[in-house]
Design a protein that fits this description.
- This protein is mostly helical and 144 residues long.
- It has one domain: Transferase(Phosphotransferase), domain 1 (Orthogonal Bundle).
- The protein has helices at residues 6-22, 32-43, 72-75, 89-96, 108-112.
- The N and C termini lie far apart (51 Å).
Length: 144
C-alpha cells in the first residue's frame, strides 16, 4: 500500500531549504539509482535502526555501498573562509529534523516554531511580493 502524507512534503521542504542555502541541487542524480546513491552519500545508507520498517517497503532492493549516517553537516560547515554556504547550529538542527523515517520527521507546526526562524538575520515580511493589477486588452488575455 502506498501512503502519502505531509511528511513527504516536509522531505521536499528540507531539500529545498538545503538547495537555497547551497545555491545548487542537493541530490542531483541522473537516474533513480544515482539519486538514491547521492542521498545515501549525504544522509547515510538506510538501516532498520535509522528507519524501522525500511526493509519491508515495497519495490526492488538494490545493493549500495554502505555510507556513514548523516554527513549533511559537512555540506554546511559551522564556519568557512572559502565562501561555501554556512548554516547556523539552529538551522542545522532544523535540517537534521527532516529525517528519513516519515513517522519521526518534523511536522509543519513544529518546523514553524523552531528558533531558527527567530535568529538574526530575521526573515523579511511577506509584504515584499509585488502586486501587478491585471490589464484588459493586453497580452494573452486580450479581449476580441
Amino acid at each position: 500500500m502506498k501512503k502519502y502524507s505531509t511528511a513527504v512534503d516536509m522531505w521536499s521542504v528540507g531539500c529545498i531549504m538545503a538547495e537555497l542555502l547551497a545555491k545548487k541541487p542537493l541530490f542531483n542524480g541522473k537516474t533513480g539509482a544515482d539519486q538514491i546513491d547521492k542521498i545515501f552519500k549525504t544522509l547515510g545508507t538506510q538501516t532498520e535502526t535509522i528507519w524501522p520498517g525500511f526493509s519491508e517497503l515495497p519495490g526492488p532492493k538494490a545493493q549500495f555501498v554502505k555510507q556513514p549516517y548523516y554527513l549533511l553537516q559537512k555540506r554546511f560547515p559551522a564556519a568557512s573562509f572559502t565562501g561555501p554556504p554556512v548554516l547556523s547550529e539552529l538551522g542545522f538542527d532544523l535540517l537534521n529534523k527532516l529525517s528519513y523515517d516519515p513517522e519521526t520527521r518534523i511536522t509543519v507546526d513544529d518546523t514553524l516554531n523552531r528558533d531558527w526562524f527567530r535568529e538574526v538575520p530575521l526573515p523579511k515580511s511577506q509584504d515584499f511580493m509585488p502586486t501587478i493589477p491585471p490589464q484588459l486588452g493586453t497580452g494573452m488575455f486580450k479581449e476580441h
